[in-house]
Task: structure prediction
Amino acid sequence: MRMTILAADGAVVIDGRGIKGIDCSSLADGIRVVQWNGTSGHTEHEPDADGDHVANEMIFDIAPFQTIINLWQAAADLIDNPPPPPDPPDAPPMTKEQLVAYANVAQWKRATSGTTVTINEEQIPFPTNPNSMTLINGTLMDMQIEGGATSVNWQIGPTSFVHIEKDDFVIAARAVKAFVQATFDALPALFAEIEAGTITTKAQIDAIFAAF
Result:
């Protein structure tokens, strides 16, 4: 091991790796530099009380500097293996007003995300965004007037259609409407629980609408 200690700077270089900020107070009084080549070395000293030069002193034992070596090693270990960052502080709890606003957003997101209806043992997807609901209601009205449509080719994918007879479509339209309305019907009870303090997180609200 090769080592240099610069006491005034708190700098220690061991095998070519220098680290500053090392506590060198364990050095004997007057030592300002230590040089070690692996088997021997020398110390360099501050001038004496009269300002006269103090000759370098040969050293053949590194033991007196072990405290500084240990401090250098601890600093190197900390650099190489820094502690993990502290956990971020917990987010402040949401206010009741924020929870109500989030519940309205979550409800609308679920109400317009679509649902499926079983027709002749087949799961048929029905979008429930406003445009799709307008189309469903328009088709339903047309089927219910005299001379109106008796069936519809309902698009369920970019190039996919399913033929639905009038009676089945009426049932499906009512089921779709019931699904959308159910998400609205969930809000009053949800708001009551927010007010009572039993619902306090987004996750609780999400779980309610995930059940639809």
Observations:
- Residues 96-210 form one domain.
- The chain has a mean pLDDT of 95.
